[in-house]
Design a protein that fits this description.
289 residues, alpha+beta, 5-stranded antiparallel β-sheet, 4-stranded antiparallel β-sheet, 16% helix, 35% strand, globular, transmembrane helix, membrane, transmembrane
């Protein structure tokens, strides 16, 4: 599909009307209710949602001779084409044919687009599998493939820029963090098919052509570099579960430890182009109302 055709398709989706609001507390409740799934507490994610709403991410831009102006971000405006394998990943990620409601995986939200509108933009791979940033001109979802189809993460949509109609190229400077959230890979092991759930912390977003490396300080002693492709980046690490402070009698570690992170974009010769501090953890779907 050409850029012009994608723009026409987006206008048609906009005419369809407003999207269904995403409720962060409801999202947390859904996650906790999943059978055999370890996740965040409702109280904990409520606090995170409040933090996301009230906190302004601190961005530090350091002088650099090769730091481009705001127009540099326009280079990510053209989405890449999917390979046949990537197209299959997208369709598997969206079994209903497109993004779905955060509380109902069978309820497709047509105004968020169809599966074939989306491209695999960049993937974070490790020994446990992969999480992909999958986007359209309007917004994105995250996809973490799993053989446990009934336990797969829902394709919850977020607009580029956190508001409709979505602004793919509309960020200034060299770095835009679009999501810091979690995704779970569910699978079974052994002859008895014992259920396992690996919870990952994920950071993803966009970067200008001047960026050579994006690094995340996870605020727990770990620092990792993101995968960069097509003007987008993504990185994931396995999460650590801690005891729920709201339930002191429960000695089991059930809450994902997710402190704010620092994301830094580096240019040529390791120069810091932009740094975003205190990036708060939160659910996908921000601004999709």
């Amino acid at each position: 599909m050409t850029i012009d055709e994608r723009r026409i398709a987006e206008e048609l989706r906009l005419m369809a009307g407003e999207a269904t609001p995403v409720d962060p507390l409801a999202y947390a409740t859904r996650t906790l209710a999943r059978r055999r799934r370890r996740a965040w507490s409702v109280a904990g994610l409520t606090a995170v949602a409040a933090t996301v709403a009230a906190t302004v991410i601190a961005a530090v831009v350091l002088p650099s001779s090769n730091t481009p102006g705001p127009d540099a971000a326009a280079r990510v405006a053209a989405l890449p084409d999917n390979t046949p394998e990537q197209l299959q990943l997208v369709r598997t990620c969206m079994p209903q044919g497109g993004p779905v409601h955060n509380m109902d995986g069978n309820r497709r939200i047509a105004e968020h687009g169809a599966a074939d509108d989306f491209r695999v933009l960049v993937e974070s791979r490790d020994t446990g599998g992969t999480t992909a940033l999958v986007g359209s001109d309007a917004g994105f979802v995250l996809c973490t493939p799993t053989d446990q189809k009934d336990m797969a993460e829902r394709a919850v949509f977020t607009y580029w820029g956190f508001k409709p109609p979505g602004d793919l190229a509309g960020f200034s400077g060299d770095l835009q963090v679009d999501a810091y959230t979690s995704h779970t890979h569910s699978y079974t092991v052994g002859k008895q098919q014992i259920q396992k759930d690996d919870v990952y912390r994920v950071v993803t977003g966009r970067a200008s052509d001047a960026v050579r490396r994006v690094e995340v300080d996870w605020a727990d002693g770990r620092r990792t570099s993101a995968q960069i492709a097509n003007g987008f980046f993504i990185v994931r690490i396995i999460g650590k579960l801690v005891r729920d402070p709201e339930d002191p009698k429960n000695e089991e570690a059930t809450i994902l430890d997710s402190p704010p992170v620092t994301v830094t974009a580096y240019g040529t010769d390791g120069k810091v182009l932009r740094q975003e501090k205190d990036v708060a953890f939160g659910p996908l779907g921000r601004g999709s109302d």
